[in-house]
Each structure stands twice: as C-alpha cells, then as structure tokens.
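Re: the pair you flagged

First of the two:
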Amino acid sequence: MQMTESPPKLPPLRDVIREHGLGARKSLGQHFLLDANLTQRIARAAGDLTGRHVIEVGPGPGGLTRGILENNPASLHAIERDDRCIAALQPLLAAYPDTFSLINEDALSVVPSKVAPAPRVIIANLPYNISTPLLIGWLDDLAGLERMVLMFQSEVAERICAEPATSNYGRLAVMVQWLCKARILFNVDRRAFTPPPKVTSTVIELIPREAPLFEAEKSKLEAVTRAAFGQRRKMLRSSLKSIDLDPAKAGIEPTLRAEQLSIEQFCALARML
C-alpha cells in the first residue's frame, strides 16, 4: 500500500507572527488569515492543483500559502512586498525548496505570465487597498490562466459578480464578466482574520472565457462603461453625449440607465465608437 507523504512540520502561525513582530499594517491592507480549515477550503476551491503553477499575492505569515502547498501544486510563487513577511516565510522555503518561491515586489508591478508558466492559477486573500487595480490589470494577462480564486471585501465581490438591473451592477461587473465567468463561492466572517477587518469578506471564482463574451475592443468598452456609469442616474441619451454616442443607433432605448443594459448591449455600443 502506497503511503501518503505527510506535510512537513512547521511552527504554528501565531508563533511566526509573534517571533517576527507581524502586526498587520493598514497601509498595506493586511488582514492575516490563520484558520487552517478555512485556508484549506480556499485552496481546495481552486480544484486539482496537480500540474498547476499557482500565484499567491500577499501571503503574510503564510496561512493560505500552507493550504496551497498541501494541495500539491507544480509550483507556488508568492508575491510579498513586506520584508517582515519575507523573513517569516523562510521556514516554508526550507520545507518546500522545489515548489515554493518568493517574489519580494509590489504585486501591481508583477505580470503573472512572466512569473509562472501555464497552466496557471491565482489564489489569494488580496490586500484590500489594491484588490480592484490588481484584478483589472490581470484582465490583460489571461492567456494560460485557468482560474482565479480570490478573496475581496464582500462589497467588491458583489460588484464583480452583479447582474444587470441590480444596485451593485457597474463597470467592474461588465469588464470582468465580459472576459470571465464569475461566481461567489462563500463569505468569510471578519472574526476569522487577525486583526479583524471592519467588513465581511467573500471568496469568488473567476474562470477566463475562451473568447470575450461579445465582440468589442477593450479600450472602447472601457470608454462606454466609464461614460455610462460615470453618470449612472442619468438616461443614456445624456450620459453618452460626452463620447458622442446615440444609443438608439444600436437599437437601445435612449431613456434607459446604465444599470439596465446587458453586457451584450454595452458591447454593441462599444462597436459604434
């Protein structure tokens, strides 16, 4: 009978935090996740990691990092700008020398496809203060990316996964869902974090589409959604004047408001620019 190799012995996360003086820094949007059951649940939500090259952003003391490594990825590349955390993650580097690597940089300056080969998966408890810019940047680098399992503030997660004609539906939902299938997986209580944030967090799954949902140029779709949602209380005939668009020419009722349009209709408007 084949024996399963047990994970290496690692110090408890609370000991790691204490030893390295890892008080979470608000300036870096840090909230550390220490519950091993929860970090395993997040890692497992990304599916079978065998043969996959995983990127994690903001590993902190390594709670989620441990969960990912225990699920046997081909490699794990963790991007961390906090030097204190780099020191705290050294035991993981020693325990997984052939699998785990650290990138001491600002995640906003890192292009995932230049860090890890395909098939690529991103799993992260994202720093709150850069979560949306990170995601928007990754939309330009989807080739070879199989899946993203990401934790956001619940408000942001709901905006990403929102349906038309709802209060959370906006530019973020249109741009993300045009390129990815998006769904909410589960909420995470604020008490699961150290220190607890003021808001609930939510884990979502994003699966890049083989092709955009409808034909459009990204820059033009961005321009249309920026104009339409920039004045979301106004009717389209007013909000789209700034980019010289007449929605009626795309067969769209000019008295509608931005949140009433489908992604298909936004793409039709983008093709008119």
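Second of the two:
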Amino acid sequence: MDLLLLFKSVIMGLVEGLTEFLPISSTGHLILTGDLLNFLDKEKRDVYEIFIQFGAMLAVVWEYRSKISQTLAGAKRPGRERNLLINVAIAFVPAAALGFLFNKMIKASLFHPVPVALAFIIGGFVILWAEKRQHTVTVETVDDLSLMDAFKVGLAQCFALIPGTSRSGATIIGGLFLGLSRKAATEFSFFLAIPTLSAASLYSLWKMRHALVADDIGIFAVGFLASMISAFFAVRALLKFISTHTFIPFAWYRIAFGLLVLLTAWSGAVTWAV
C-alpha cells in the first residue's frame, strides 16, 4: 500500500472533519487541498470526498445521540420532539431538490479553486454583515423553531450548493438573520446536516459506484476515520466557542484565505487547476 497516498488521505480526512461544521466551507477546502496534494484522479476523488463527508456526519450523530434518540422516541406523539423532526425534514427539502436538479451543472462550472476563492471572500463579508447588524433573538432553542423558520433556514442552505459558501455557514448565518440564537442556529445546522449529508453521500456513492474498487478500501477507511474523529472535536470546540464569541473570526479567515488563493493563482506561485 502506498504510504504517501495514505498520508494524503489522512490530511484530506482531517481537513474535512475540521471544516465540515465550521462556517468556512469543507468543500472549498477539499477542492483546494486535493488540488495542492494532487490527490487521486478527479472521478475517484469525488467519491472519496463523499465517503469521508459521511464520516464527519457520524460525529454529529454520536455527539447528539441522546437528543436524537429522544426525538425519535418522542416523535410518535405530538410535541416538541415531533416538531423538531418535521422541521428538519422541511428544511432538508429545498437544497435536496435544487441539488438533484442542478448538481451536475454546478460541479462542471464552479468546482474549481478560483470560483471557490471568490465564494470564500463573499461569504466572509456576508458573515461580517450578519454580525454587525442588530441581532434580535426570537428563537432561543431548536425546540422553539416554527415550520416557517425551518423552511427559511432550508432556503438559506440552498446557497451551500455553491462550493466555497459552506453548508453550515449558510444555515447558521441564515438562522441569525431569521432571529435564531447562535446556539439554536448552530445546533439546528448540525441536525440538518444528518439527512442532508446522508442523502447526498448515499445518492452520489450509488451513482458513482463504478469508480469504486477494492484496492481503495484502505485509503478510503483512513480518510473516513480521520474525518469522523476530527469532526467530533470540531463540533465540541465550535459549541464552546460560540458561547462566548461571534463568528467574525471565521469571516476574516475566509476573506484572507480567499485572497491568498487568488494571489497565488494570479502570481503563478501555485498552479491551480482553474
């Protein structure tokens, strides 16, 4: 087994796990990291990224296993558990529908380093705008969300179809604009990630099953574990961070990182596959 390829797989898994639930775009980071590492061919890398994304999602399932089990058990009768389940389902639909219709076109046009860098920068300024405006909290916890709140967060998630935007960033910042507290917006984003990432992963894996071969099991497994473990710590760190901080540091990171990619592309310091 190629040790260098395994090492690259660990790096890719760590990048996915550490960025999936932060408002900085895991897809954007994976595109840039994979390009820098020259990791696998494009078709196989697409399958690999989907697979390790599923690992990151399992970290959320484990972290919220108690809440998830309570919600599923309580969904049999009317109440906040059933409402949360319905809200997640409603929020899931818009991005799932648009992704199914336009995913191929988006991948062909925007899954390249320079468009990703531009999305990083624009997203950074959106976060700054969201944090600088007057934030009136009308939804304190995820259990307080209305059906319309959930649908609007689902619409916000549609922006995440643009690589470099960030699924968690779109849903969290969208939630802030809608009056959710930072904790409610972040936790609902985590819950929404479960059906969103599961559906995207299973659908894409089935569609691209022809690219899977037995020889890749080790590479995929290493990336999956690295993603799941790093995502677990990233989720806990983010929840602790938002209890005393705003999302402004993530905004400046996005802007700086996006500018760095554009600068290296313009100067020729890095030959990005644009």
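Residues 3-267 form one domain.

-B.
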